[in-house]
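Thread: Modeling a multi-component assembly for a lab meeting

Hi all, long-time lurker, first post. My supervisor asked me to bring a structural picture of a complex we are working on to next week's group meeting, and I have zero experience with this. I have the sequence lines for every component (320 residues in total). Could someone generate the structure of the whole assembly? Inputs are pasted exactly as I received them:
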Amino acid sequence: MKFKVHKAWNIKFWKTKKTFTYILGLGLFLFVAFNCLTWYWQKFSGALRPFWQTQWENLYYRLGGNEWVIFIIATIVVPGIFFWSINSILMVADITGKPGFITQNHIQLGKNDPVDTTKLRKAIRVGLYNQIFISLPMVMLMLPILKWRGDPFSLSLPTLYRFLLELAFNALLEEIMFYYIHRSFHHPFLYKHIHKWHHEWTAPVGIISMYAHPVDHVITSMIPVLTGPVLLGSHVVSFMTWLTLTVLYGSITHCGYSLFPSTEFHDYHHLKFNECYGVFGFLDLLHGTDKMFRCSRAHKNISESIPELPKKKKKLTDLS
Ligand SMILES: [Zn+2]
Ligand SMILES: [Zn+2]
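Re: Modeling a multi-component assembly
Sure thing. I ran the full set together rather than chain by chain. Output:
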C-alpha cells in the first residue's frame, strides 16, 4: 500500500516537473523567437503597409467616408459572408455525406450521418434569430463605444505589430472570460434554464455555434468577443478581422469533423458536458478540467494528427 502511494506520488511529481520544464522551455523559446521576429516584422510590415494602407484609403473614399456604411460592411457583412460560406459547405457535407475528404473525418462515428434535417432547420432559425436580433444590435452599439475609446476610422492603419498584438490580446481575454462564464453556466440552475439549449446537440455541427439561448448568446458568446476591442479602442479593420476569425473558429470547433485539433476539444465538451470548457484549452489544463479528454480516444486522434519527425537514417557503419 505504502509502495503504491509512493509510486503514485512519484509519477505525479515527474509529470508536474515535465509540465513545468515544458512551460519554461516554451516560454524561453517564445521570448527568443519574439525578439528575433520583431526585427523581421518591422522590416516586413514596412514593406506590406503601403499596400493595405492604399486599399483602406481607396475603400474609405469610395464609400464617401460614411462611417455607418463602413462599419456595417466590416462588422456584419464580411463576418456574415465567411460564416455562411463555411457553414454552407459543412451543411452540404452533413446532409449528403460528400465530399469524402471532409466526411471521412467524423469524430463521433455514426452521429449526424446524415444529419437530422428537422433539427438542422431549427438550428438555422435560432442561429439567424441570434445573429439578427442580438449580434447585430450589439455590434452596432460598438460604434459609439469604439469612437469614444479611439479613432476606429483613422486613415492611418495600425502597424502589423500592433494588429497582431491586439489579436493575441483578444484571444487571451476571450479564453479567460469564456472559460469562467461558460463554466458558471454549467451550474445546475443556469444549465437547466439557459445553457441546455446549446447542449441539445451532443454531437455538434458547424451552424450550432450560434444555436444558444439568447441570454447565453449575449453573455457567453458576445461579451468575451467584444470586450478586447473595447478595451483597446481597436481600428475598424482590426475589429473586422477579429470578428471574422471568431465566427470561423466557432464554426470549425463545432463542425464535428476532425479537421483541426481544436475541433475534438469542443466536440468532447458536447459529448461529456463536464470537461473542456475553454476556447483553446489553457485554463482547462490549469484547472484540470480536461483530464478525461486527455486520456480519451479524441485526444489520441489529436496526438496522432501531429506528424512525428522522420527518424534519422542509420549510418552504414552502424549496420555493419
Ligand atoms: Zn457548455
Ligand atoms: Zn458548443
